[in-house]
Known about the structure:
By secondary structure, this protein is α/β, with parallel strands linked by helices. The chain is built from 7 helices and 8 strands.
Amino acid sequence: MTSVRVDWDAEAESFDEEPDHGLRDPGVRAAWAERLRSWLPERPCDVLDLGCGTGSLSLLAAEQGHRVTGVDLSAPMLELARAKLAGRDAVFLLGDAAAPPVGEQRFDTVLVRHVLWALPDPARALRHWRGLLRPAGRLVLVEGVWGTVTPVGIPADRLTTLLAPLAGRTRLERLSEDPRLWGGPVDDERYAVVATV
């Protein structure tokens, strides 16, 4: 699978219209909040949300008591994220998810949803993200393979193989079978990997 170029600035205005992007439907929002609660540490921690888009997962993490730093390459997406999380313990930075502009700061969790598949060198990004974690930190990666004629994405077996030398423990959760997350049934591969280093 190759990387795909998308004009995320142009997508910002309508991005939240997808049920799993905007999380506007209470059922979809509750399903993502439940999953996030199981993936993130129980105690309040520092979460780096890479490719945060309009901040929907950042908002759920902040509502669960976590301190969030979001990074996205799209200024219009970040404007929407800042508005969504106004008054919360969150900061948003313009930058590349593959090499986020966080300096020496380290995090308890690096959260990445539907980003790795679009990067030119996923293995390199994963190594870099691991270096942003504190000891016993975790990578939470939500990915998939979309489409049948010309599929794009990263298959679960490829991602778990890339993570093997980087993580002490890896847990794979299949998400395609849970229509609550997507606003209805889906027939493609969607999953999450939680890797503890």
